Amino acid sequence: MPNRPAPPEHPADPWQRLRQFTRARVAIGRTGHAQTTETVLAFGLAHAQARDAVHLPLDTQAIDAALQDAGLDTVHVHSAAQDRDQYLRRPDLGRRLDDDSRAALAADTGAGAQPFDVVFVIADGLSALAAQRHAVPLLQAVLARLPTWRTGPVVVARQARVALGDEIGERLQARQVVMLIGERPGLSSPDSLGIYLTYDPRVGRTDAQRNCISNVRPEGLPYAQAADRLAFLLRGAVALGRSGVDLKDDSAASAATLPGA
What is residue 261's predicted lDDT score, i.e. its pLDDT? Predict the structure, then answer.
């Protein structure tokens, strides 16, 4: 039989190289006019993980144990949203405390007590998975950068929106409040943690009066870099007397001027 010519080799897809640098959906390929079975199944898995992250409850006992191991006191609060369904339907209820939580914070604040420099809040938000995985190690990294600051008890908040920190900070007489809260899950990142800093927290503060650091997780913004940025902003807010749009994150530029940079 005559030798048949070898089939031509398909050229390597240059897009495949990009997949090592990102979890975004690049180089997904196709079969005919449709996506490949592998791509469709991967998308379904990512969508299910995002939905699970929204509905997963925060394991407060595990958070408590981790904070106690770190030598930190805790206080637990709950928003006015009674359960997850109401929390998702009524964002306004997630922005204010229920009556029991107000009483708990009042009991934790003594009359004439010196104000805390900062109070940290660990909140489930829209991804308890993010708070569960990343809040405590991030908090430890931040506290190591603020050794002389007077910090209040760590507040663990359930069914919480970002603005819940305003009432918490006000009731605990904190100069600043930092919310470590689960962000809305994405199809490639169901466990992204967001950081929201508010100087002089009061009920009624707007988003323009806060600073945000987002996508904190090992695959996104690592703990050490996030802690550096947050410590920079906390000190900057004290110097400026406010947070939000007037407080710029120039931490990268400042780090570049340090010796050895």
Answer: 44
58-247 has which fold? Rossmann fold (3.40.50)
Supply 153's token pair: 């008890």
Q: Where do the structural domains in the chain lie, given as residue ranges?
A: 58-247
Max alpha carbon distance in the chain (Å)?
Answer: 100
CB 233 within 8 A of CB 239: no
**Cross-strand partners of 210:** 198
Q: Who wins on pLDDT, 39 or 91?
A: 91
Q: Which distant-in-sequence residues (6+ apart) come within 8 Å of 200 by Cβ?
A: 175, 176, 242
